[in-house]
UniProtKB/TrEMBL annotation:
PANTHER family: OXOGLUTARATE/IRON-DEPENDENT DIOXYGENASE. Residues 199-302 form the Fe2OG dioxygenase domain. This is Fe2OG dioxygenase domain-containing protein. InterPro entries: DIOX_N (IPR026992), IPNS-like_FE2OG_OXY (IPR044861), IPNS-like_sf (IPR027443), Oxoglu/Fe-dep_dioxygenase_dom (IPR005123), Plant_2OG-oxidoreductases (IPR050295). One of its GO terms (molecular function) is metal ion binding. Keywords: Cytoplasm, Iron, Metal-binding, Nucleus, Oxidoreductase. Its cofactor is L-ascorbate. GO terms for cellular component: cytoplasm; nucleus. It comes from Dioscorea zingiberensis.
Amino acid sequence: MAAQPVLPLSKYSTIKGISDSGVLSSLPSFYACRDPDIDGPTETLEEEVPIIDFSLLVGGTAEQRAQVIQDLGKACRDWGFFMVVNHGVPKSLMETMLNACMGFFNMREDVKQEYNGKHVFDPISHGTSFNSSVDNVRYWRDYLKVIVHPHFHSPAKPSGFRETSIEYATQTREMAKELLKAIWESLELKPEDMEEALDLNSCFQILVTNLYPPCPQPELALGIPPHSDHGLLTILLENGVNGLKVEHNGKWVHVKSLPNSFLVNTGDHMEIVSNGKYKSVVHQAEVNASSTRISIATAVGPSLDTVVVPAPQLVKHKHQLAYKGMKYRDFREHTQANPRQKYIT
């Protein structure tokens, strides 16, 4: 493996700081988590993930809505990923949110360090890598995590971040709830039962912004390693730079999002409540040598105090119960204390 540290990097606390410094011509060994000479090339497909027209779900005819619900069920069953178009979130808000997040990462490192967090439930947390408390290697990623529901939080800087993020969080949460209702219906369950079972009025929503600066040897690094997401749904916005790979039928699929669209994936707790009918899919983020990629992931889960169990209607006999119940809060703390991986199998 050719990656070697070039200069001491201790004065840089972020990947952006390292990348902007220009001190690297090769990748420091502790960021090298892949070895092409050993691992060999991995096959990557160029298939398209399913596309869901949100406008037909909320404003179409009864027949159109029924078809979208059927399509959603198939997408959750076969892929665990789908692309949402005609979603009603203004393009101007999406662009402003991306710019606000870039504005945060562009602040001085000492200012950003005010938000460095240590606990999974810190209202605002800034850092680097993936799960630095347990990672054996580092990942080429800076992040900002903000809990936005049931209580809204926001960094004080940059100017305008709070106003933009509260509007963005509200609109993506409402979209997620509509998608969840339809997914629930695709399982032949009543939407009102979902509200009660998961306490969605007090749902836990976190906004995670990921920054992947240019990397000197992207073939050796990863932005985020293969993992699944906690919660029910994750809604992803990208800045037009691709990097997401999704595991599908044992192979990796390079996902290319359409302009003005969201990528949505099912999470661990969707797998649990569906008793395994809908899987939480493994995915990863790759980096490149020339462009900065920003993604904004909005994860929506049940309330933190909800004990998440399979929907009783999907368990006809006791031996068919695929998952034991666990309080969502306890699950989040468990995942923070352990190397991130596909937790439920």
